[in-house]
Amino acid sequence: MLHLLHRQRVVHLLRTEGPLARADLADRLGLSRPSITAIVGELIDDGTLVELDARIEGPGYRGRPRKLLGCNPQARRVLGIWIDERRARIALADATGNIVREDETPTTGRTPASVIRSITRIGKQMINDAADGPVAAAGICIPGFVDSTRGFIVESKALGWSEVELGKPVSAALGIPTAVQETTQAMTLAETIAGRAREVRSAVLLNCGGHFSVGLIIGGRPYPGTTGVAGAIGHMPVPGSQAKCACGRIGCVNAGMSLHAMQSVAPHTEGMALKEIDLDAVAQETARNPHSQKIIGDVIDQIARAAILIEAVLDPEIVILSGLITEFEELIVALEARIEEIRPPERRGRTTTVRSHIGRDYRAAVIVALQQLDPDIAGLLHTPSR
């Protein structure tokens, strides 16, 4: 068991901070040089690692140039599957997370069984065509209440799904381990591994899109909560709110703090994909309409106040703005400005607001899949540099 752990630590360090030489690995992991040599030899033999070009040492170095080690991108591949209310996007990625191939299938108006059949059909084709290396795992992201331990969808209001087995049928059809995570939890994991939270110990992610939810990073790792739904506040009631939520209830957080809450300023865009919307035309139309500007301003203000409240409770190093709102430049600029404007004087300089660079797509699902190959990828042993 200890030997397996050391193998995982070597792979994790090279995946997140490599390439490195054997001596660097020994020093960073606190292992002896003979132990590292033996572990690296095994990992090279089974194709997990590869030796790269020799490193040129600095002036005064008298030994032989040391060879660098890196993860072999062709060793194992994974499938990342991102499901939302409009489509399911399936991507084939190598062991370093680079996307090799992608495809998609619509989800609107379809039953869970129909969507699952389409996903597994596309996934099987990608697996069969993956000539450069075996596909070892799959990761699925889906909005809603998700029991990630069972791969079970308790409820996804965005898709209209309830009590759906997702992980087991996909895993059985594809013949590979399949992990299922709620979208915001997956985005939080992605930020920890490859995004803005990689070099911090604490962060809050605000997923501002058609729904509003929060991701937490505590001690350098994602915090999913006791049952895996920490931060799922979209359908919590807001005192005094009479806004009607898409779920049918009155006063949900989503009714006043999501892009759906702004939908009335451009009702003709309801149900349209982002790429189908003429954003310039919508911006010009709303700019001339004081009522539209007030609706947008009210939503921005509520999101900003929620951000400040969460920031005050958790005192994170950074707040990451993520989700669909980051694709609307005027909205994200307005939100950043409002957060800074209402941040209390005693909070200034303590927390920094940043934008996500990961995006809201299958890249997060790819990281969920890669985590199955390297369980430590969530940062259990990660010590951020200062």
TrEMBL record:
The keyword Kinase belongs to this UniProt entry's keyword annotation: yes
Cleavable signal peptide: none
Sorted UniProt keywords: Kinase, Transferase
InterPro entries documented for this protein: ATPase_NBD, ROK, WH-like_DNA-bd_sf, WH_DNA-bd_sf
Molecular functions per Gene Ontology: kinase activity
Taxonomy, superkingdom: Bacteria
Protein family: Belongs to the ROK (NagC/XylR) family.
PANTHER family found in the cross-reference section: BIFUNCTIONAL UDP-N-ACETYLGLUCOSAMINE 2-EPIMERASE_N-ACETYLMANNOSAMINE KINASE (PTHR18964:SF149), ROK (REPRESSOR, ORF, KINASE) FAMILY (PTHR18964)
Protein name (Swiss-Prot/TrEMBL): Transcriptional regulator/sugar kinase
Lineage, top ranks: Bacteria, Bacillati, Actinomycetota, Actinomycetes, Mycobacteriales
Gene: mlc_2
